[in-house]
Design a protein that fits this description.
With about 160 residues, this protein is an alpha+beta fold. The protein is built from four helices and nine strands, in the order E-H-E-E-H-E-E-E-H-E-E-H-E. Helix content is about 35%, strand content about 30%. The strands form two sheets. Strands 2, 3, 4, 5 and 6 form a five-stranded antiparallel sheet that branches. Helix 1 packs across helix 2. The protein is elongated and about 65 Å long.
Length: about 160
């Protein structure tokens, strides 16, 4: 009897690394001379990161510090989804950013479509916030992985639960 092989395509962000990166960025903000006396801050709430600074220019610097720390901790910048800049209290500006967890339905559909268009002997199905790919040949699964890696869906993707 032929055995099926499978793997899952997921988008998971290691929140501990995000927390560590934010703590490092907060330390750097506190120590940097160019931020002395400024109202700049980086906070992590349950759902999002909140960046605050005196003006847009300084906020860009705060964002750069945060992104540098995230990259050093192995967190993809595609995992950070920034909202629009907004005016905040005391003449400051604020920007919120969500951490992407899971693949939203539209992106999952695009992944499944790309795999189907490749005409490989595999099946791709959406399972809540991930995509499962199954097939009889390991080669076909590896081709499917290559197809997904070749596209940019705007979020970090990982391949997990490889079963053969």
């Amino acid at each position: 009897m032929a055995q099926d092989f499978s793997f899952d395509i997921v988008s998971k962000t290691e929140m501990q690394e995000v927390t560590n990166a934010i703590q490092q960025a907060q330390k750097e903000l506190a120590q940097r001379f160019d931020f002395k006396g400024s109202k700049s801050s980086i906070e992590l709430t349950a759902e999002e990161i909140v960046l605050v600074s005196d003006d847009e220019g300084k906020l860009r610097s705060v964002k750069d510090i945060l992104e540098t720390k995230l990259v050093k901790r192995g967190v993809s910048l595609k995992a950070v989804d920034y909202a629009a800049l907004e005016q905040a209290a005391g003449g400051t500006v604020r920007q919120k950013a969500k951490i992407v967890q899971g693949i939203e339905i539209e992106k999952a559909k695009a992944i499944v479509k790309a795999i189907k268009e490749a005409k490989l002997k595999v099946q791709a199905s959406i399972q809540s916030d991930q995509v499962r790919v199954t097939g009889r040949a390991k080669d076909d699964l590896q081709k499917a992985m290559a197809i997904v890696k070749g596209h940019d869906y705007g979020i970090p993707l990982q391949f997990t639960n490889y079963r053969g």
